[in-house]
Every structure is written in structure tokens, then in C-alpha cells.
TrEMBL record:
Keywords: Signal. This is Calx-beta domain-containing protein. The keyword Signal applies. Residues 1-21 form the signal peptide. PROSITE patterns: PROKAR_LIPOPROTEIN.
């Protein structure tokens, strides 16, 4: 009876060893890759372009380079396609388990509430990957942030504006607001003197004969000027900071 018991035990151990080796061989056929995090705050200078290195990691180290395909998930992306450059792939060098995706984002149609860019790895055969990464894109300013807000009257197509620096050079301008009820934009400007000029083509301002329109210039929590009742135009001279 003991001989049969030991024979069965030996057979079970042999089978377990064989299956364990087989599973190990199967696992070696697969790779695991992950982004450095599931969410990444990506600040972009107002009116500028920024590049960030996003890290990825693999579960193991091999003796050869490994390249992984990176895709943008359109369903989870609100950023303008013209505003970002995402490399189609990322390489983990031989002898390492770390790679870097160089992501470039420009301030193109980035709203005040921010935008998102969702990234994922391609579902290649034998590849396991972590959750997708969402880049939370927002505007940042290391100088003086200037904000313009306009609420139009009944005739928004009559409104236009211009912004000049201290030397009289045109920085920005806007018009053609037909059908719009409001507009806002931001600048990141150095210290200095500036002039903002708003125009009304009908020469009756944007308040208050045909709607309660208004405009506001602000820097951070400071209101530089706000108004709306003027004739053909109104000029506002101010300094930053």
C-alpha cells in the first residue's frame, strides 16, 4: 500500500512540475507595460507650446529594444487635434524597463476649463497593459495673465477689439462675432504698458440700448477695467503688473 501511495505522490509532483514549467514558458511569451500614472496634469503656456516626457515602464528587462504602439483614444479626448503631437510609438531600450514618450501640446483652442488627451497602448498580441493615461491639459502663465471677457448686446457682429503693447504694436484683435452671446480669451504678458480698444460699428456701444452687453479686463483676481456704455470706441490704457 505504501508503494502505491509513494508512486501516486511522485506522479503528482512530476505533473505539477511539468505544468509549472509549461505555465512559465507561456508567461515568458507575454509583456506587460504601463504608463507612469493614470492621470497627468499637463500645463501649457498661454499662447505657447510645451513638451513633457511621459514615462512608461515594463515588468521585466530584456537584452533587446522593445517598441510599443501608442494611440490616442478619441472618445476620451477633447483637445483640438491640431494642438498636440503624440509619437506613434515608444521604445524601451535593451537592459532597461523604462521608456519616455515626448508629448508636445500647444495652446490651440484650450478652454479656460481645460482639455483632455487620453492615451492607450495598442492591443498587440502577447501584450498586457495598464489602464489608459489621461493628460489634463490646462493653460499656465509664468508672467502676467490677462483675461478679456465680452458679453455681447443684440448685435454682436458690430463689436470688434484690438490690443496693443507699449510700443504701439498690435498684439491681438478680434471681430466677426455674429450669432455669439459671449467671448473670452487670455494672454500671458510681460510687465509693461498696454492699450485695449473696443469698437462698435453702429457707434452706440454694447450697452444699453439693445441689450446689456459689457466687457471686462482682469489680471488674476484684479479687475483692470469693465464697461460697455460708449460710442464708436473706447480705449483703456493700463500697466502690468
Amino acid at each position: 500500500m505504501k508503494k502505491i501511495y509513494y508512486l501516486l505522490l511522485s506522479l503528482a509532483l512530476t505533473t505539477f512540475t511539468f505544468l509549472s514549467c509549461e505555465n512559465s514558458l507561456e508567461l515568458e511569451k507575454f509583456s506587460y507595460v504601463t504608463f507612469e500614472s493614470t492621470a497627468y496634469n499637463f500645463g501649457v503656456d498661454i499662447g505657447g507650446t510645451n513638451t513633457r516626457g511621459i514615462k512608461i515602464y515594463t515588468a521585466d528587462v530584456t537584452n533587446s529594444n522593445r517598441t510599443f504602439t501608442v494611440n490616442v483614444v478619441s472618445a476620451g479626448t477633447t483637445a483640438d487635434p491640431a494642438s498636440y503631437v503624440i509619437p506613434p510609438s515608444v521604445t524601451v531600450p535593451a537592459g532597461s524597463n523604462e521608456g519616455t514618450i515626448e508629448v508636445t501640446v500647444s495652446d490651440i483652442n484650450v478652454s479656460s476649463s481645460g482639455e483632455t488627451i487620453e492615451l492607450t497602448f495598442s492591443d498587440d498580441a502577447g501584450l498586457f497593459s495598464s489602464q489608459n493615461m489621461v493628460l489634463n491639459v490646462s493653460q499656465i502663465c509664468s508672467l502676467n495673465e490677462l483675461k478679456l471677457e465680452i458679453t455681447f448686446d443684440t448685435y454682436p457682429e458690430e463689436t470688434s477689439w484690438e490690443m496693443y503693447d507699449g510700443a504701439g504694436a498690435l498684439i491681438a484683435s478680434g471681430d466677426s462675432y455674429n450669432g455669439m452671446t459671449s467671448f473670452e480669451t487670455n494672454w500671458c504678458l510681460p510687465d509693461g504698458n498696454y492699450q485695449f480698444v473696443i469698437y462698435d460699428a453702429y457707434a452706440d456701444g454694447i450697452c444699453c440700448n439693445y441689450g446689456n452687453g459689457s466687457y471686462k479686463l482682469s489680471s488674476g483676481a484684479t479687475t483692470i477695467f469693465e464697461g460697455g456704455s460708449f460710442g464708436a470706441s473706447q480705449a483703456v490704457n493700463f500697466s502690468l503688473p
